[in-house]
Predict the structure.
Amino acid sequence: MTIARHVKHACLALIALSSVGALQSAFAVGTPSGTTISNQATVDYSVGGVSQTQITSAAASFVVDSRIDLTVSEVSTNATQTTPGQTNVVTTFRVTNTGNSTQGYQLSVTNEASGATLFSQTDNQDVNNRRVFVDSNGNGTYDAGTDAATNIDTLATDADGESVVVFVVADIPVAATNGQYANVRLQARAAVAGTSGATLATPTAGADNPAAVDIVFADAGRDATESAADQYEIRSAALTVTKNVAVISDPFNGTGADRKAIPGAVIQYTIVVTNNSATTAANAVTVNDNIPANTTFVPGSITLNAGSLPDTNFIAGPPARVAVSAGAVAASGGTATVTFRVTIDN
Amino acid sequence: MNGKKAIVAAVLLTMTAGAHAADKACVELKTSAATEQEVIEQGQKVRRLAPAGKVLPGDEVVWTITATNVCKTPTDNVAIANPVPEQMSYVAGSAVGTGADVAYSLDGKDFKDAANLTVRSNDGATRAARADEYRAIRWTYKNSFAPGATAFVRYRATVK
């Protein structure tokens, strides 16, 4: 029987390949549980050359039992991009009832162990405050407050084109760093329909009752439980900052080659912020630098990326400082350059 | 001439009456559903047919039909027919019946050999019908059934 069934499945696969996917789907679900399959034979015959009235047998029948099967799949086929400290980050799954009975499902989510791979990327971070919500309004988007159910109450079979979207919502640790991956695994266990996932389905033990709908777990593990993983990809800007100092002029040599950092000399500081992230721009970058002791800020000397900035970017303090909003710094080596000048006090 | 006709008619009437005299049907027909189930017999796992047990989509069910001549006269031209239940697919090559010719039908009316069953597709081409398209099976016996004789036929079908 086992071998025969394998052969049969192979045939079905061929049919599906050569025709439409819908056929395969229909086969995967099958006749609804509880359907009574009834059969009556007829016989025609004659006696002494005379045809007799056709005879019909009593009906023989049995009830199709409940085959519990399900699939859990990750929807996006790639990692969800996020940043350190981001809250309520959503990944999306789909739960499909591939059995032949309407079913409920109990849902849970866990962090995957370090080293688990998905999308060719290896888990090395965990996410916090993991929650599961069912897409109650069926719009495919997580709506906080509206999508409040945490288990699937009732899901018709895939034959009716039914599946349901499930969201995992989690917070990313502030300590996560650029290029880390956090895998989460959504698990669904078959439950009795209409119990909000509270009452798990149990297989019917012992001999079949031909008149009743018995329950058989038919999923891969024969445990009415399936799961799928999705991934958070942590992306963060990777900023470095360098600061250089140059003497522009002194009171005796002017801007000549011999200018020195003596009292009264003008000094220019150049601060370069570089984003070494391959992927993520840094936004709202601000550059703050205190004016060194024994120097005095030169009004009108602040520049950002070679453009002059007003002196509103200088704060008299104390501490006296330059504070420049540099805006976005592009990924892959983008820079923001701030310069300002001071004079060395006499 | 007229006399001869009258005699023939009389004979026919007698025979028909005789058949009726046998008190209704001369053939008793039974249908049963079974599944192959694994049982332990003398420490060995063996497969046995047992009344249809847990049946799930994709499972195979064995339908068995027995026909018994319960009259004191032989019955001739016995033909057992059985529609494949709507929710099931006939398993190719599974119909058996000793001494019977097996024919199949796509509509439950017109029976042919498996080799002669064709389906016309939308583009006008014809192809051999697939076993899962068979809607009925018929077993026709060439030999008459002696009084008390029982024939059984069998086929397999999977639950869709």
